[in-house]
Amino acid sequence: MALSNQQLEEWITLVREKTVPQLLADQRLINGHRLNEKFASQVNAWRNGKSFRPIIETANELAAAECLLRSIGETGRLSYEPRMAGTKKRIDFLIEREQTLYEWVEVKTVAPQFIDDDASWQRYLRIAEEFSQSASFLTDRRYLGSAITGQAIKTRWSFIRYTAEVEASEVLVPAAMKGNPWLLFCSNGFDWTIKDLEDFADFYRTGSPREDDPWGNATVRFMHDAGITFRRTLAGFHYMERKNPNVSASCFRRNVRGPRFGADCGSEGEVRHWR
Question: What pLDDT score does 151 carry?
Answer without folding.
Answer: 78
